[in-house]
Amino acid sequence: MSTVVEVMEKTTGAMSSAELAGEQHSRATVGDFTVADARMACREVEVWYGPKKAINGVSLDIGKNEVLSMIGPSGCGKSTFLRCLNRMNDTIDGCRVTGSILLDGQDIYDKSLDPVPLRARVGMVFQKPNPFPKSIYENVAYGPKIHGLTNNRAELDALVESSLRKAGLWDEVKDRLDQAGTGLSGGQQQRLCIARTIAVSPEVILMDEPCSALDPIATAIVEELIDELRSQYSIAIVTHSMQQAARVSQRTAYFHLGDLIEIGETNDIFTSPKHRLTEDYITGRFG
Ligand SMILES: Nc1ncnc2c1ncn2[C@@H]1O[C@H](COP(=O)(O)OP(=O)(O)OP(=O)(O)O)[C@@H](O)[C@H]1O
Questions:
Q1: Cα separation of 211 and 204, whole Å?
Q2: Ligand 1 pocket check for 74: Cβ under 6 Å
Q3: Can you give the residue range of the structural domain that contains 224?
């Protein structure tokens, strides 16, 4: 028989006193968190902010050429987990990550691994478009320059063009490459940030609510782009929009209070969720 606290957790998502004290044990994930062709493999990942545990033993794979969406109520740890995948949490004082995260079989938390080239291999697109205060050309050329990816100006020009083309922005900006990136519309700025990420040849692209600052038309363009990018990259996207998760992703992971509650084919998660908490969230009962 369930205890009162368990019933409360299942029905309201309320935290138990143990959870509030950061002592919770991870809940078993419903669904298969592995894939046959994993690009990244995360196992028993825990994240602590000082004494507070924000991610609670999460294991999941990100496959090649797939979009994985991460959904869940505010504060459940989606962004925290996403930031583990390219060690962005390293920049936060008091943040500690345990467990293992492999990229192509290599432990990204290995002490000998330099996080700077890692962040080129696992690029990130943020909620708010954040172009550098430089020209459109320089926004895209900056990464390849610091990583020494091209040998001369002609190669750099070609890389800038191909990155802007992949981001679906070339035709809109080819005649004004020397103008400020910050002068573009919000949707164009986000695509410029995607071009900047692509320019350094990532294997994985992390997106943290990439459309939340965009209007519906710009959102539709970025969503279409995400679908196209899947043929070349692995993509993990945090989104508050279940419609967006359903439109762009092949697999969906549902987080709740730092636990990965359920993971599976996006269609299955939205049409026949197996866990009560997932069902409550997608039917709008909480969150
Ligand atoms: N820098 C930080 N220092 C301390 N606690 C943090 C920090 N960042 C996040 N947290 C805490 O970790 C937990 C998870 O937060 P996170 O931002 O990852 O959740 P989220 O699911 O992405 O939320 P949202 O959907 O609102 O963006 C929350 O309890 C939050 O307060």
A1: 18
A2: yes
A3: 4-282
